[in-house]
Amino acid sequence: MIRTFLAPVAALAAVTGMLAPQTASANPQLAYTPGARANMEVLETRRVQSDRFEYEHAVTIALPATYAVKPDARYPVLWVLDDPLMTRSAIAAVDLLVAGNMMPEVIVIGVGSPSEDGLAGVGRRVIEFSPPGEGFAAPGLNREAVRSVAPFPPYPHRAEDFLAFLADELRPELAAEFRFADDHILHGHSLGGLFAGYALFTRPDLFDRMIIGSPAMANVGDAVFKLEEVFSQENDALPVEIFVGAGGEEGNEWFLNAGGILTGTARFIETLNLRGYEGLSVTSRFYDGEDHYTVAPRIISDALRSFYREEAAATGSTWPQKP
């Protein structure tokens, strides 16, 4: 409590020189870094053309507040899917948690459709996030419900291409430009959560941590669960830390029921915990009163707090336990 209370005092001391920097314990990332910004520097969104896609992707990069004044520092990277919808929430969460000394500084990179492309661009995520398989929906009654009310025409399933773009093209290109630490987090919400599940079982070495929100994990006929079954037959270890969340109100919306959001999320959590992979850590949370949209920023914030709870406790945070 005392250290948290000292945060404004620390900021004042950094300006006035009332205290020597080595006496600081609150907010060491910013308050005692000469020349540091108050928040992250959000660069102008750039457009990137991949050889795998006939259209461009938007990439929004936010650099840590100390990035310019710590030329030798390297930072973990938070990769955020659905750039035009999710990146600003992630940046806001990081800014506040860093200011509160609840997590280290990170580089945030949002990847998705250009905002100028409108909802038509956002709609491409159905293609890009879908694992190989047939159709869109979860199996059984879920699929029949979607067919009867909102049938999806056949479409390409290009999660493999999107993951290759993300990991084999974009990551090395940006790593040559920015100072990445060897520590990567993937955030995916809804269909982005489905994609995260696909990435987890096809290229498990790519991300150290995953934030998976309200995932459509059973979509494409249980494609991710089928991949997990195959993965489990060949692997005993899965050294990834995962935070999974969903909103309790998601069960009150027809399309989310058809997508099996709550049941698919619960089954994903159960499967990982019961399989008992070596090195795997799973934290889950269902949020009363939150729906598919309002729950997203809460999941991002709670996941980051959970990932860095031990570091936060060591530097004076008042929230050392899991959420």
From TrEMBL:
<dbReference type="InterPro" id="IPR029058">
    <property type="entry name" value="AB_hydrolase_fold"/>
</dbReference>
<dbReference type="GO" id="GO:0016787">
    <property type="term" value="F:hydrolase activity"/>
</dbReference>
<comment type="similarity">
    <text>Belongs to the esterase D family.</text>
</comment>
<dbReference type="InterPro" id="IPR000801">
    <property type="entry name" value="Esterase-like"/>
</dbReference>
<protein>
    <submittedName>
        <fullName>Alpha/beta hydrolase</fullName>
    </submittedName>
</protein>
<keyword id="KW-0378">Hydrolase</keyword>
<feature type="signal peptide">
    <location>
        <begin position="1"/>
        <end position="26"/>
    </location>
</feature>
<dbReference type="InterPro" id="IPR052558">
    <property type="entry name" value="Siderophore_Hydrolase_D"/>
</dbReference>
<dbReference type="Pfam" id="PF00756">
    <property type="entry name" value="Esterase"/>
</dbReference>
<keyword id="KW-0732">Signal</keyword>
